[in-house]
Amino acid sequence: MSINESLSDRILKGFFYAAILLFSIYCLIPFWSVVASSLTSEASLVKNGYMIWPIDFSLDAYKLIFRDSTIYKSYGVTTFVTVVGTALSMIFTSAMSYTLSVKSVKYRNHMAFYIYFTMLFQGGLVASYLLISKYLDMKDTIWVLIVPGMLSAWNMFLLRNFFASIDESIAESAKIDGANDAYILFKIILPISLPAIATIGLFYALGYWNKWFDAMLYINNKDLFPLQYLIQRIMNNLDYINQVSADVTLPNFIPPAMTVRLATTVVTIGPIVFLYPFLQKYFVKGLMVGAVKG
Amino acid sequence: MVKMNRISALLLSTALVTTLAACGNNSNSSSTAVDPTGTPTTTTTDNNNQEPKAEPPKAVTLKGMLFGDQPKDLSLVLDEFENRTKDTLNTKIDISWNAPADHKQKVKLMMAAGEEVDFVFDADFQNLRELVPQGAYAQLDKYFNNDEYPGLKAAFSEEFIEMNKRYDDHLYTIPFTQYFYDIPVIYIRKDLREKHGFTSPISSYDELQQYYDKILSSESGVTPLALRGTSGFQEIWAPERPEMDTVRPITLGGIVYFVHLSDDLKTVQNVVVAGDPAENWATLPEPMNTLKSAFPQYDKWAEWNKYLEKDILSQKDHKAYFMSGKAASYYGTISSYAADKKLLQETIAGADLEFFVLKERIRNMEPKAIATNYKANNSIAIPVSSKNIDRTMKFFDWLFQSRENHDLFELGIEGTHWEAVGEDQYKLLDASNNYMFPGYEFTWNPTMIRTSADLDETAKKYLDYSAEADTYYAPVLARFAFDTSNVKGEFANVQSKADPFIQTLKAGQIKDWETQIQALNKELKAIGLDTIRQELQKQVQAYLDAGGK
Amino acid sequence: MSNTTVQQVAIKSEVESRKKRGPFASFIYEIVKNKFLYLLALPGMLWFFVFAYLPMVGIIIAFQDFKAMKGIFGSEFVGLRNFQFFFRSGDWIQIVTNTLFLNTLFIIFNTAAAVFIAVMVTEVSGKWFKKVTQSVMIFPHFLSWTVVAMFVMAFVATDGGFINQFLSLFGIESIQFLASPQYWPFILVLLKIWHGAGFGSIVYMATISGINPEIYESASIDGASRLQKIRFITLPLLKPTVILLTILAVGGIFNGDFGMIYAIVGRNPLLYPTTDVIDTYLFRSMMDLGDMSMSAAIGFLQSLVGFILVLTVNSIAKKVAPESAIF
User: Fold this and answer.
1) Pick from B393, B420, B452: which residue ends a domain?
2) Which of C70, C150, C288 to mutate to test the interface with B (most CBs of B within 10 A)?
3) Cβ distance of A99 and C138 shorter than 8 Å
4) Is residue B195 part of a domain?
5) Residue A33 belongs to a domain
6) Which residue among A230, B139, C91, C245 is the one 20 to 30 A from C38 at the CA level?
7) Do B212 and B336 fall within a single domain?
8) If we measure between CA atoms, which residue out of B143, B46, B141 comes closest to residue B87?
């Protein structure tokens, strides 16, 4: 009997391997092509289109990007914003999520509604701009990249779900043993929620890493430009020409080289690609072994 | 003793000021950022008076917003500028550079928040039309044609200023332009032309068509003509006829409204739109009296559709398409000739670029061949919230006072970035890549044009032609501008409904355009075409009644 | 989850004492009882007040003739006028249908693909294989749609596009994809999955890793096959997350994916019949106008419809799977 099950199980597993492999290749090739095409000269890209292997290898695009020292500063800005921002976001989000996940909190659904409402209804750019720029006077500070986007309702609900899925008996038995809410949260719940924390932390980190819109609105000081904003400026130029109506010509407007646009993609993704494998260890099955005792 | 000195100092400066006031004409108050000690600032322009050298005005930093990328060596240029004007202007310039796609929104938000900035780039295709009527920008009339600002006076003629005033007859911008018209051309692969037996440059549409037929038949894989998907054929095959005074085309939201005026040009008789029934058209003088004769180019476009790539509507970068060797020609304007030629030669071995001027009269460089409203497409506006309006204008005055001042900003440091070739040409030096300044945002002026010395003779003669005042004339209703406020909803509907049709028409994909345009017209009528039409008629009549031409 | 007897007694006495208090008093009582928890949530609630509720004043722009210089409090109130233009032309029916249709497809297929991937990845072994493929599968998420659009063009181009080249090997005539609207819902869904499924699977993988492996072990002992384990353990335990994310997605079902559609379809009018959504339509209508009021009005409409839908779906969820309802 066990041999039969192994066979059908093995076939299924084999099918999974194949499917994942195919999908991965399907995902990898365009990205690979972007990297390869960025390592070629502009003339070659124009002539040959996208390639899997660089024809006429050239580092020109990268030289162009890194020539301006602003990009090094922006890496620094973005790193600071990501690290500090993620930390702050995780602290406040976990706090809220946990409270909303505890069933005995009577008003948790009201609070959830209060938060959810903000996901749907927004006041628009003008109002936000006035608030942040005029009334809170946060322009040209590094905190404008962190505070206004610090909490995400979406992430909060996800994390709340994770907390809610933890077996209540764990908390209950701790309560009977005399633990207060703080102890339960810090010593019991958080340690077994590592996959969830890692996931939400990753989402926040990515959000901070990719932040550019707030920079566009509120930051004029070159020393405070985050990485993605620098990149976006390069990428948007070509789109702009096509948006402006046909009878407007911007004379001598030089759209940036295609290779530069591709290189910018690589430059921003790079660090993420290195970060993600470190987080993967939290997604291992069976982290909760030994958590449930009684 | 200190007291005595202070009083005498006060007396002395008062005397100084009154003397100066008597000398210059100052119907305007040239009081700038008033010094707390009460010492009025002095005018910085050269007078012929021999008063003692005045103190430099209080230091100020002018903050401005342009779009694009900051030139790498801008700091060098600014340093040089500050060195030169330490004692006269004592001004620093601090420019923030927005990404082009974001500039429009950012400026609007800043104006809404009342933020302090001293100058911004704005234009009709950005926020000007909206912000001027709302009072966001300062009126600049008094700074022009004013002897206290000789630089501005010399560089901006009265007519130029007149034509750039807004609906309420005030000037709200510093207009920048070099040529009033960027001549549309078709750029052609010279090597392909020669390869297929055309010994001399193409000089007529028929020749062009022969060239395309040859490409289609003998050069497989190469599209004869590359166009941008959103604009299509544009000026290609546009009928060459002199502008008629009594029938004025006004384009709103992509649709052309023909305003029919009485012979004395004082009354609006009717407004005709493509697709209107034949009777409407019959009221117009020839050749506008039938739909077909009014738009001869549409048939031609449908015929020429075969020379375009199949996926033309999705083409976002037709120049790159051409440069990759997949097309034998592409649509462009003459201002990019030098740069495009260089790019082509670097990309495809043995290739060379030449151009075909679309309009015959321009091709032959005839006088009064180009109709224009003399409006500059680009300009700087000064927000009312700025506290340094006078200082800003003084800066621009300095900028236009001499070619040296002007060229410093427009081209960079002479000897490093460029060198002068004669009076009106320049040669780019190796370091020029570090200083690519968008002159159209800050410095362009018809009196101070320098063309590249490397420029082909063929292109240069056309550029000179487009710089001459005699080439242009202002047709009737040139200064009229339509205000959409009363018909916003209808405008949005009409535009979104007409846009797909117009785009496919411009790409030559509609053969039986007459029937289809009439069908479209009916649909547009149902969503407000006539409301816009009546509003237009009303506004034009009001414009004429107020003395507009 | 049954409460112990001690707790049942405690709850009962609390309920009884609660009945004797007035509403305000019971509010205070509740706060005091769980004061640590409410205190935890307080900073977050304040943050939402400042950065989400204060700016909500701006919604009024949808009902005004907003002029930038007059500001929010100075512009004229015009009621529902800004909404009229959207409904005046008959096009809105097609556009709304497109928006709903495409978004529904996206939600369904994205969720399915993400769950599928998460399950597969957690089932296979091989540490390096998993690490590498997991990283690779999220790459597409980081490619901006403008870059993706260039690849799409290379695929569907009529002359020389990959698909047509492939077809010509079999003697099949070229399909002019860029002129045939009927293919595009399909193409867009494929693109969305490629772009988002890998990244979307992360959440599900995290959920699966929280499942107690002892459950699987006891199932194995009982003789369950891999497939059965997936069907009866993994999938049901993913249900709360799926429902939550679906409800959240439903809130945005009236919002077209502007970034993707504008980058790929752009301004190709031949494809509008099946790909034009509310946001792209709005963008084109406002091109020369730049009117903030009308844009705000449509945005408000989208929010309102999404809100009503979520209320409905949430109340259904409360009955069917109360753990997953949002509120």
Assistant:
1) B452
2) C288
3) no
4) yes
5) no
6) C245
7) yes
8) B46
